[in-house]
Amino acid sequence: MIDSLKIYIPNETTSNSVGAIDAHKAISKLEGIEEVEIIRNGSWGAFWLEPFIELEKQGKRLGVCYKGIDLSQLKTLDEFLSDFESRSPFDIRDIEFIKKQNRIVFSRIGMGDPLDISFYQSNGGYDALRNALSLNHQTIIDKIKESGLTGRGGAAFPTGIKMQTVSDQNDSIKYLACNADEGDGGTFSDRLIMESDPFSLIEGMTIAAFAVGASKGYIYLRSEYPLAKTYLKRAIETARENNFLGSNIQSSGFDFDIDLRIGAGSYVCGEETAMMESIEGRRGLVRSKPPLPAINGLFEKPTLINNVVTLATIPPLLNGSLNDFSKLGSGKSIGTMPFQLCGNIHQSGLVETNFDISIGEMVETFGKGTKSGMPIHAIQIGGPLGIYLSSAMMSTKLTIESLQSIKGSVGHGGLVVFDNTVDMSEQAKFAMEFCSKESCGKCTPCRIGSIRGVEIIDRLQKNKSSKEDSILLNELCKTMEATSLCAMGGMTPNPIYSIIKNFPNELIEK
Amino acid sequence: MTKLRETIKSFTQIEGGLMPALHAVQEMEGHISKNAISELAQAFNYSKAEVLDVLTYYDDFTLEPSGDHVIRVCGAEACQSLNSKKLTDQLIDHFGLSLGETTKDSKITLQEVFCLGNCALGPSVMINETVIGEADKNKILNFLEDIE
Known about the structure:
The structure holds 2 protein chains of 2 kinds.
Chain A: E1 6-8, H1 13-17, H2 20-28, E2 37-39, E3 52-57, E4 60-65, H3 77-86, H4 96-99, H5 117-122, H6 127-133, H7 137-147, H8 159-168, E5 175-180, H9 189-196, H10 198-212, E6 216-221, H11 226-241, E7 257-262, H12 272-279, E8 303-307, H13 308-317, H14 322-326, E9 329-330, E10 333-334, E11 336-343, E12 349-354, H15 359-366, E13 376-381, E14 387-390, H16 400-404, E15 414-419, H17 424-438, H18 444-447, H19 449-462, H20 467-483, H21 487-491, H22 493-502
Helix pairs in contact in A: 6-10, 7-8, 7-10, 9-10, 9-11, 10-13, 17-19, 17-22, 19-20, 20-22
Chain B: H1 3-9, H2 18-29, H3 34-44, H4 48-55, E1 69-74, H5 77-80, H6 84-95, E2 108-113, E3 125-127, E4 130-132, H7 137-147
Parallel strand pairs in B: 1-2
Antiparallel strand pairs in B: 1-3, 3-4
Helix pairs in contact in B: 1-2, 1-3, 3-4
């Protein structure tokens, strides 16, 4: 072996989507390649640089963006090495996009092989679980409460309080369900955890289960993420083999195991009650609340439901990062949030930072403007149930409170950028179309209202100044908002309200 | 015992086993046949209508076989911002299919999907289980040629 020479080639959906698979194929065939170690790492989340291939020698790790470059012409390792050197390799940790972030939850992504449990443990992994297993259940819950962590799936409910409710139930059987049905357009933070640091999710689930007294966990993963499925399956097996799952975990007397369940293409199944219906083997129709899942959830037992990033945040909180996390921000917007910068943006990727950052800073400092080079016209925040902001609103902060005050939400943290070729009336229509396609059908205003909504917007596209249709659209939105059981029908009006308000004359002419 | 019956049986003892059983049948048969519906109903002690009720709710379960290659074009917002609509139209034109249809030779099924989590490098298209980022018509046709 060439002394400690390592080549890192990512194996992650986005990297693979632009050539990492071909690069790996070509590099594996090079003459002399057996002299070096190839590591399939996760992605650093600086996606515009993918496929980003790195070389590590004498402890120094530098990389090159190999997008659009055909490596299959190279024959020997030496040819590859000199090609690599000729492309001005750099340390990705030195670029502003990464340096300006505060990666507490995503601290390991990109660094190593996501399925290497030794790598995980030598980089802080499982220290938190070992620590937690020696603590009293209530002490763990108190620490989570103290941290100020709120649910990162979209609803921003205080995680510690939810854990307390489940813990307070006296049932002998309790469940933990991890919501990995990351369906909002413009989001990929859960996927990145599952594909680039899956043990952090498994460890977080194990700690949460221990704290609330659950002995069985489910991960409900969307079927659109086949690579995450492969990673999770193998990571669960490895955790079992190493006694981090199963009976008597690390000789603590605590038993816990995880069952991976796959969704089947329904957006509403990301809503927690519909998700439970689906796990139980039924149509994904939402349930009315109460009862709260924390009291009467999966199979009628108390169930702790959290999203992937929320659960993956628990280990660092119990492993020395609690103060670093909780000192950031205020109110509900405490700690770091993984924002996902995407759409028509030059530097797209995952940005973990505190909430107190403006949209302008996000899309300019991190994103460096549009990919097309045209001016920004709109930014969608919080997925299909979030809102559209105009380019005049760049100073808006990304805190939960700031977005709530303009009838929006951080949601799952997706920011989708559109340039000035976007037709906002089409975006408004899409909100209704999406609702009509994905509605579970339980509530009439959502099921039928959304179809009427598409028709009204169709007419408005032909006559923007129709008073009648403008009033009708507003009344329809108010009805959907007031009378739908879940956020699907209840929040579909939000993008439409925001387009009417922030983009005057683009949908409705006053 | 038939292979189908055996496959289904392995899921009857687990909580909420119908969904994983449906996935297994879909993978095995390429769709959920009438025969499989009867087998599922019997194994889970449901009526056939109850099995049909569940499976028809989910886009992933189909009553008819799909084409050899399933092309799913993302129609969610991040891909819209990079003109996925134009790409979808080009593919509709090229294959002469509407969304959800399969070519007469059973080679290609064209579908729409909402979000593949590849939003950073759209427009995105999934062919079988492979995601193609920054997709255009040529990339898709070349990929199909490579896997044929």
